[in-house]
Amino acid sequence: MKTPFKQTLQAYLFLAPALVLFAVFSFWPVGYGSFLAFTDYSLIKPWHWVGLDNFRTIFNNEMFVTGLKNSLLFLIIVPVIQIGAISLAVLVNNKLPGIKLFRAAFYVPVVTTISVVGIMWGFMFHEQGTLNYVLTQLRLVDKPVGWLSDDSIALFAVMFVTVWRGLGWYMVMYLAGLQSIPAEMQEAAILDGANRWQRFWKITVPMLRPTIMVCSIMSVLAALKAYQEVLVLTQGGPLNSTFTGLYYAYDQGLKHLKLPRGLAASFVVSVICVGIMLLCFRYIKPKHR
Amino acid sequence: MKRGFFSLVGHYLVLCAIGLICIFPFWWTFVTAISTEGNIFAFPPTFWPKAPAFDNFVEAFRVIPIWAFFKNSILITFWTVFWKLLLCSLAAYPLARMRFRGRKLVFGLILATMVMPSEVNFLVNFITVTKLSLVDTYTGVILPNIITAVSILLLKQAFEEVPQDLIDAARVDGADEWTIFWRIVLPLIRPWLATVGILATVEAWNDYIWPFIVMSKPDEFPLSVGVLYLSGTYGSSTRVIAAGTVLTILPMLAVFLSTQRFFMRGMDGAVK
Predict the structure, then answer these.
(1) Complex ipTM, two decimals?
(2) I need a surface site. Which of A21, B104, B140, B208 has the fewest CB within 10 A?
(3) CATH for B64-271 (1.10.10.10, 3.40.800.20, 3.40.50.1110, 1.10.3720.10)
(4) Interface test with B, best of A113, A173, A212 (most B CBs within 10 A)
């Protein structure tokens, strides 16, 4: 059956504003940005094609190379967040008194703006801050740690904040997944004499599989693209030790207005992200369906 | 299901420990903001307000234009949410309820934006906004944040739940698509509009990087940007910064705590 032309026209009139905005702010940046990464673009001068020059520059730049390594190192937070979030979701997936309060408490960091997160964790990580106090009291460290001033530790402090912010969000995703598991399955397993541990591994985890896949992919991409927490916590320091791939793009592109370098850096990060996504889809889809 | 007493106590202990890690930074900041005496960074830290008063808040209002920040945040948030609800439902309606050529392609493109590495877009979007002469305008802040695939998907799902009979009846009565959309279908999905609206409110209020890039005049910053400006430029005392921080999060905390169920529902739709 052929769709009448009038109906098609009407549908596109409804869609037009959204499609225009998508085109300008989502698709254009990908295409145009990739193109400009190969030029010496600036906002004021005419630009020229420079081939791979920008990429040569950034790959010879210590800040970018450290940044890219750090972005890859950031991937270690993925299993931490996902396992943490699943455990949290299991812990709050019940009707114990006060459980809603806990769910809310775990979610509060998610609804907090990143600038405030930066300020608050700046307080916590202070040499005379609460974190050092607790750790020295517990005798886990003998002298205060420079969480954000020691170049061998700062990156892990930044990662910790990323985990702290993300946990609640993924918890809610998993909670939704858990609540869609039919209660009869758990009950049947109990009748068959399965203990908690067995029920978790034989029912919960397999049933959560689609959610785990989606969340893990999102988490991998988010980790590779992390830069906002760097901006509000350390601005790349100390000694450039907390640079990430995208933070370099921000730092060069907007702070120092060297747009081509910034664009080249974000191009590299995008290519890594797209590559990982393609790999994921290729290896996950068949089992999924 | 029976559970041992100790298992239950253990359960709550774990919940409390994690809850403490999530909440403590907020509590410490709050205590610092309303205390007017004692050392801020000291061993042992202060866990309870000392000589509580609002002096720090008064000081925060004095050193930075917090009222202006508030006004700017409200403006940006209101218009982002307004246009988002309007334009995303306009886009979601035909995807859910109309047959037209290229529907699969359009839907595919919208889904594609979800997997594109969008965080890297800020450099080109900055160029675009500059070329459109929208730097230092709220239009520049708002425009790129209006349309998101997640909002469209949620609203599409909402439109799909509207009974077909209702739409057919309206068509028989001679209503055109616009009337059906505006008069019949849109009012029916109000709960979903509320969900999308609340999620979008928090997102717009909390957006930091983009307004920070687009706006350059301190008087025109939203709170999220202004509060970091407070800690950077003025080198203000920690207590005043803490007071500004409390003022920044309080509105969204109130929104979140009073509308918690919407957050759970929003996520529910996003997973499907």
Answers:
(1) 0.90
(2) B104
(3) 1.10.3720.10
(4) A113
